[in-house]
Amino acid sequence: MDNNSQAQSSEFYAKHKKVYPREVHGLFATLRNTGVLTLLGLYYFVPWFRWDGHQAVLFDLPARKFYIFNLTFWPQDFIYLAALLIIAALALFFFTALAGRLWCGYACPQTVWTEVFLWMERWFEGDRNKQIKLDKSPWAFNKVWRKSAKHTLWLLFSIWTGFTFVGYFTPILELGESVFKFTLGPWETFWILFYGFATYGNAGWLREQVCIYMCPYARFQSAMIDKDTLIISYVDSRGEPRGSRKRSADPAQLGLGDCVDCTLCVQVCPTGIDIRDGMQYQCIGCAACVDVCNEVMDKMGYNKGLVKYTTQHAIEGIKTKIARPRMVIYAILLTLITSALIYNMVTRMPLELDIIRDRNALYRETNTGLIENTYILKLINMDKKDHSYHLKASGIDNMKLIIDTESIIIKAGTSIDLLARIQVDPVELKKVGYDIHFDLQARDNPALHVVEKGRFIGPLRRR
Q1: Homologous superfamily assigned to 351-457
Q2: What pTM value is reported for the model?
Q3: Domain ranges of the chain
Q4: How far apart are CA 166 and CA 1, in angstroms?
């Protein structure tokens, strides 16, 4: 390869440079840390809570039951999951249109876990300058033990993260007992290690590269924002021309703006960008640059807000419009779908009746000349109490319902399959097919009542 080819190749493939984010304090740092502690607190401790004799939040895949505190969901309730995903997508659109990448800066798992890994890194390696110095130093005892201790803690924390993740699908007390007794199953072992090492790799090693290169949200966010969206911006008209100066100096006499070119906004950025270069897709909206710039402005005796949350219209001197069409549409859709979901969950009937018609034969004729259809009825009691049920059928005059049991008793949180036969006198059949209805009602609670439609098929009548 000649020198020209090597030069061209180096332009396309720049070697990754590690980003050393400087620790920052301020309003937005406090909000971010509060979000980290709240979200991780919920993630790690919720599986240990008990509720009505079961784990408070448990997605029991083998039993096909999903417990969320007082609610128990079945596979038939997956429509709620679809609604939640729609609500999550609309909420993302709404808040992005309102204030940019709020999700990325404060609540994204990548941001949350990376922040914790940065805390652990600072415990062993010190602040930004000490970390840079340590990485440049030769391998000696001090460097080895600090790096080893950091990675050991990272790995332990990652494995605990994977263990907690699996604890949402396997009762966490049973899972912990299996770990201590070395009886962990292959699937639990796989997912603990897989999720653990994914956390270790993403939050410990890849960090900002996930946000810059792997996350699709960074690429399409520009389609969801406009000039009225709150974004973190450097006020160019106030800060330029930038330059260093003494605190006592008058920037006007020096022909300078308020930016002292300290580069602290670059040093605190977790993705290593310079906010003064304008809006960039790598910006995750964490507002670390806002906090550190406000500190510098305070020290210099200048007004805060050289870097701040603002809109492009505000920077241009145009009034910002919050209630614009896309915001109104997002808000209406969010309100309607969320209200519908809450209403359906509150009024949800904890009783399910599924009808499966015997497809091996359209119908059969009994010894007494009656036309018979056979059905498998799947009855699910999603209530927390055992119930005895009464079943009846309607839809054809003088039809007869025959079941194999005198009393239908279903225990709480269980289901049964019931063989049911419908018999009809041929003289009552004026056409080939009829809609019929199965009516299931709890004997001790009339409110537990469902009606489902089935199909009865008879012989083709010849003229």
Answers
A1: Immunoglobulins (2.60.40.10)
A2: 0.85
A3: 14-348, 351-457
A4: 50
